Every structure is written in C-alpha cells, then in structure tokens.
Amino acid sequence: MKKLAIAVAAVALLAGACSANDQASTSPNTGSASAPAPAGGGATGTLTVFAAASLTESFNELGKEFEAAHPGVTVKFDYEGSSALVQKLNNGAKADVFASADQANMDKATQGGVIDGQPTVFATNKLAIAVAKGNPKGIKSFADLTKSDLTVVVCAQQVPCGSATKKVETATGVTLKPKSEETDVKQVLAKVQSGDADAGLVYVTDATSAADKVDKVDFPEASGAINNYPIAVVKDAPQLALAKEFTDFVLGPQGKAELTKIGFGPAQ
C-alpha cells in the first residue's frame, strides 16, 4: 500500500508539470505586448498657407519651425495683398489656411463660403512711414507727406494698409497725393528701398524688418487705424489636420514670440 501511494503521488506530480508547460507554451508573450508602439503616423505632404504680404518675415520663420516639428511636411506660402488672396479663394483656389491683414477681407472670405469655422485674431499692426536711410527729406509727421517736393507711395484702398491710410486721412483731414497705389505693402516698401519714392506708408513691422535699408518714422495718428489680423482654416482644406495644427501653432506661444520680434501687437 505504501508503494502504491508513492506511485500515485508521482503520477499526479508529473501531470501538474505537464499542464504548467502546456499553459506556458500557449499563453501570449506579455513582454512584447507591453512594448511601446513605434513612432510615426502623423500627416505629411504640403500645407498651403495664403497670408498677407506683411506676414512674410514672421510666417517664413514659423514655417521653418513647423516643418522641424512635423517631419515630412512642407509649408508653402502665397504672400499677396489680402484682397487678392480672398479673390483667389472665392475663385476656387486651393489652400489650407488663410491669414488676413484685416477683418474686412476675412469677412469677405467668410461670406463667400470659403472659410471653415470661426476666424481668430492673432495679432495687430499699425502704419508707419518708411523713408530712405538717414531720412534726407526730414519727414517727421503724417502731414509732412503733403509737401510738394516729396514722392509718396501708398497701398491701394482695397488693400488693408490702404484702408488704414484712408482712415488716417479722414481722421486728420490730411489728403495725400501719392505717385502710385500699390497692390500690397511690400511693393510700397520696395519703391522706397529702390529710391523710386521718398516715403511710403507701410506697417511698423515692414519698416522694422527692413531696418537695414529704410528708416521708420512713427506718427501718433496711426493708433487710430489699428488692423486686426485674423487666421482661419479654409473650407475643404486638402490638409485639414495640418491646417488646424498650423493655426494653433500661430495662436500659441511660439507664434506670438515670432510675431512680437518685428513689432506686431497682441490680439485685441
């Protein structure tokens, strides 16, 4: 009987070991299941941004930063006067993001049904007078731009910088007689840089970004014509996810820091 009991115990022990081995061989590998998933899977491709010409320097830098944070993404900018960009959008041009230099042109885009969601103001700007280095004509005020010996250029009235100029003229009672009215603020700046004009009404930010080529004359009346800069995702954006990310990027701390560098004011 003693030998029989020992034999039964041995059989039971052997069966338990076999069962444990079978369970081990059929259970999943828990170590590999807890391993982190591989990185990647973000959107790639080209993000197209329609932006007011006055945003050129700031947005170029923000584009580089955005690309660095999004491998495989290229940011392509179309810089023109806001009114021209709205016309392109309303005519069916494809873009992902639109940043305007004033609320009026953003409103036109919204009314045209080409904007997705609610635009958000991300910066403000105001006018300044760009003059040749050293200010050889001695321009000190907005009223000085009416002197007969000066060649002055401004933006066309449908362009935000032109609309702001008109507001200052109305508020001050000073009527300018410009040599030309340009389709965006960078063209005004270029004419001053080239010597084709003695003075041009541009934004503070444009004169600041070209400080090695022009001098800036501030005038107090500019504070009565502050421009809000709204940004929005374009309806049916080909890169919708990236468009929302870029918009948030501009509205975030990195965007604010870059815009502040050349004189953009905070959103109001």
TrEMBL record:
The keyword Signal applies. InterPro entries: ModA (IPR005950), ModA/WtpA (IPR050682). Residues 1-20 form the signal peptide. Keywords: Metal-binding, Signal. Coiled coil: none annotated. Belongs to the bacterial solute-binding protein ModA family. PANTHER family: MOLYBDATE-BINDING PERIPLASMIC PROTEIN, SULFATE-BINDING PROTEIN. This is Molybdate ABC transporter substrate-binding protein. It comes from Amycolatopsis rhabdoformis. The gene is modA.
